[in-house]
Every structure is written in C-alpha cells, then in structure tokens.
Amino acid sequence: MSNFQAILKSAEESAHVVQDPELRKIAFHEILRHLLSSEDVSPKEPRRPAGASPRRTKGRSSATTKVNSQPAIRPEVAALDLSPDERGLVPWVNLSADWTKFCWILEAAHLRKVEELTNAEISYLIDKIFRESKSAEVVNNLKVQTKKGMVKSVDVTFGDREYRGWKILAGGAKEVTAKAAVTE
Fold first, then answer.
1. H helices of 45-148, where?
2. For the whole prediction, is pTM greater than 0.70?
3. CA-to-CA distance for 101 and 180, rounded, in angstroms?
4. Which of 54, 66, 136, 175 could in theory staple to 119 by disulfide, Cβ–Cβ 3.0 to 4.6 A?
5. Cα–Cα distance between 115 and 99 in angstroms, integer?
6. pLDDT tens for residues 96-154?
7. Which CATH architecture has domain 75-183?
8. Residue 15 burial (CB < 10 Å; 0-12/13-18/19+)?
9. 81 and 118 Cβ atoms separated by less than 8 Å
10. Which residues, 6 or more positions from 3, have their beta carbon under 8 angstroms from its beta carbon?
C-alpha cells in the first residue's frame, strides 16, 4: 500500500503546478492514470522516487503545458462581412508585405466600427476572406510598425479577460488607402 501512497503523492505534486482548479483536477487524474499504467505495464522500468515528475511520452502533452492565451474570436469580429474589394482600400493583390495586409484588415474592420483586433482575430479574418494562412504569432510582428506610427498596441476586453491587440493609426490607414484613391 505504501507504493500506492507514493504514486498518489507523486501525482499530487506533479499536478500542483497547474493553477486552474478544474485543469489541476484533470491533470491529476491523467498523471495518476499514467503512473498506475506504467507501474502495471513495465515492471522492469526503474521506479521513480516520490516527488519526481512523470516521464514525458512522445506525442502527449505535459500537465504543465501553457494554455493558449489567444482569445476566441469575438462575435462582432466573426460577423464582419469584409470583401477582398473593400471600397476605399488598396486591392489585396497589391499588398506585398505582411504588415500591410494586417493594416488592411485593421482598417477594413475600423471602417465597420470595430476599432481593435487581436492577433488571432486578424489571422482569422485573413483566412476567412483570402484563404491565406497567417498565424497569430506572425501577426505579432506588427510590433515593429508601432515606432513608425502605423499601429498601436491596445488592450482588448473579451468577456472577463483582457488580451493584447492592435489599433490602426493614421499612418497605417494611409498605407492601405492612399493608392485606392488614385485608382478610383
């Protein structure tokens, strides 16, 4: 029975690093299941001392894996009906740099009264409208444009949480609207 107590203690200590109570409970059950199955299946494997974390197996995530901090898409963003030929904006095909594409999305949303977008929302809109894959991590490269006055970093509230997002500034809007005025 003392071996079972050591396994329980090890599982509790391993799951303790998870801060959310519900996730900690799930992590505890998963770790306990893993520890018990490894005890039954492979008796030749050396036993871990109490308090040692379980060995990771390929393809399974650890209980300490960070939860994705990117928010889901807000309903007002998902409802945006943007078109590749938005009136007053540079045609999408004329945009070569990723940051100008991100500014295009921000300006198109701004014209529809959505003032700020998160990385995930910009990525979602690009995929939805243009079927181009731009990860939220790539969208974060917009930070380079803050010093140039194209965008600014803002806090976006979604439910009871706040996320970092972007708001288009006059410089960014000029980049994606200037040529449109010439071609119309």
1. 75-78, 98-111, 119-130, 136-139
2. no
3. 14
4. 136
5. 17
6. 899 999 999 999 999 999 999 999 999 999 999 899 999 989 999 999 999 999 999 99
7. Orthogonal Bundle (1.10)
8. buried
9. no
10. 39, 47
